[in-house]
Amino acid sequence: MLMNGILKDELGFQGFVQSDWLAQRSGVASALAGLDMSMPGDGLGWQDGKSLWGSELTKAVLNASVPVERLNDMALRIVATWYQLGQDDDRRWPNRTMGGGPNFSSWTNDEVGNLYPESPDSEDTGVVNKYVPVRQTVEGGNHDELARRIAREGIVLVKNEGGILPIPRSAEGLATKAKNGKLRIGIFGEDAFPNPKGDNTCPDRGCNEGTLAMGWGSGAVELPYLVAPAQALHREFDNATVQVTDWKTNGVKKVDGTAAAQDLCLVFINSDAGEGFIGWKAVKGDRNNLFPQKSGDELVKAVAANCGGRNEDGEAVSGTVVVLHTVGPTVLQRWIDLPGVKGVLIAHLPGQESGNALTDVLFGDYNPSGHLPYTIGEKEKDYGPDSRILKFPNGVVPQQNFSEGLYVDYRYFDKHNITPRYEFGYGLSYTTFKLSGLFIHPLGAVNTSLPAPRSHVNEPVPPHLDPRVPDPETAVWPKGMRRLAKYVYPYIDSVESAKPKGKYKYPKGYDHYHDLTEAGGGEGGNPDLYTTAVSVQASLTNSGDVAGEAVVQIYVSLPSTTTDLLLGQTVPLDTPVRQLRGFEKVLVEPGSRSHVRFGLTRKDVSYWDVRVQNWVVPTGELRVCVGFSSRDARQCGSFELVGGGENSWLRETGERGEVEEYDV
């Protein structure tokens, strides 16, 4: 249903479906379900060479368990992608004889290595790594600068009490009690410093040592370099007027004295996680909780309580700025309200340009524009009963039933009226913005409940391929061909091995054609779903003193009731309180104004009707808000959705109440 029905039919996906590594758990069944490519090809065990496909798929086609049409579809989708990417063009993708082909190995960093790694039959060697420079190229540009830009735009300023940020590079602007007149800056926490054993010491970045630049797992890469925050800070501060002190651990013993000797304290903490095949200490993939790791909370509390010493009321004299590197939502409640904590930056996973990107923001060279892509709750349980890590299986096979439905993150908080610490979409700037002049213009696209009927006129038609089962002799191992152990091949040992052993029992409904869904008809679904239904415009003014980028967000709230298309009666409509439907990042100079425009599509103002199996525009009031977070709506308006119209598809399907129910 998911691959054949929703992805390839409804969403019109023209590419191929590839499994995650070792995620394929069946042979014929996965082929019938719509899988097109198995990766890396092994079966149920890593590097065992016992593929669930390979020669087994060949046998399944020859004995008619897998229809030839399904095999043709797999091959067509894969080859079409090859052409789509222009890989038939020798000028762009030269072959091996022209000096092209693979230029790096996943198995070794050496220039020369085994040409057929992991096979016990092979001792063949050759050049496997060509060390092609790609960081700065004419075609791709300066990737180091791009990495720095991405990192700094991902930094989110969530607290800036008293305008403690940005900070000066020299002693000008901050008071000091030092006898030598130097501004005293303390850098606290292991996360500010590089891993002393090396940036790439832990395979696949599978540990939390030193500053956190990326999570761990098979998607991790070798860092070409890593600028740690402390390195960049030492470089940027004016050494003639600033004295920097390093506290390179998260230990709090005697940290109070060091903190008391500072005019400003910068505390670095983190929270790391990754893919489940790697474990670091008690973290076996996903985090066990949503708190900072390695006693980060304790470090913040100790430094923030003592930075600059204490006044008569027992509060810290100097301010503390906390920088958090994290893989996701992290609960800050243990220290966020401490009077000494004046500023908080969530720097996420910044990559190789970590320190450079951070100093761009800390010193005000770049005005922070990041906004939270998740909600930060006050407690772990605020995220709901399904948010906790599953430490024990909830059945013979651990099962995720997705009982939360649409109510994930901010939608869950809104539904249950839970006050977050920092809501979805939240982010501060060094300037201030105002929104005004909201203009909402409904268009004719929302005058009907259902999108236009699916048209087959412009839908792609695949080429006709021979559906007949091929001669089994063509699939037998070619004479003289070398066979490497643990490598996967499509050939069979004998014709006899491919003979049927009884009729394959297809899944229910697989042996006959099904009507195409009315929700489809193009890439992404019915093209009419992407017709602009509502035009929205607002004025954005920078009312502050510095230039900045505002991220204007648009949310919609569907009616709480609607007219049921099948029953003709008013029924409750269970949808989120508000739903993000778009955002725009706009640079505005101080004192200037800019216009922000959004186009809401028919799909943006629709809900999925399980019985009708289509996107339906409800009847009732649609509320549209623009603002700077999910709970910071600055301008709102509403209008009536009428729906109705000529829903010819429903009339052709049957009388009201006779449409088959689906549980999706």
From TrEMBL:
UniProt entry tagged with the keyword Plastid: no
Pfam family, one: Fn3-like
Gene3D superfamilies assigned to the protein according to its UniProt record, in alphabetical order: Glycoside hydrolase family 3 C-terminal domain, Glycoside hydrolase, family 3, N-terminal domain, Immunoglobulins
Database matches in SUPFAM superfamilies: (Trans)glycosidases, Beta-D-glucan exohydrolase, C-terminal domain
GO molecular function annotations of the record: beta-glucosidase activity
UniProt keyword Glycoprotein, yes or no: yes
GO biological process, one term: glucan catabolic process
Reactions catalysed according to its record: Hydrolysis of terminal, non-reducing beta-D-glucosyl residues with release of beta-D-glucose
Assigned EC number: 3.2.1.21
Family annotation (SMART domains): Fn3_like
Top enzyme category: hydrolase
InterPro entries in UniProt: Cellulose_deg_GH3, Fn3-like, GH, Glyco_hydro_3_C, Glyco_hydro_3_C_sf, Glyco_hydro_3_N_sf, Ig-like_fold
Keywords: Carbohydrate metabolism, Glycoprotein, Glycosidase, Hydrolase, Polysaccharide degradation
Domain Fibronectin type III-like: 550-630
Pathway: Glycan metabolism; cellulose degradation
Role played: Beta-glucosidases are one of a number of cellulolytic enzymes involved in the degradation of cellulosic biomass. Catalyzes the last step releasing glucose from the inhibitory cellobiose.
Family: Belongs to the glycosyl hydrolase 3 family.
Protein's name in the database: beta-glucosidase
Species assigned in the record: Friedmanniomyces simplex
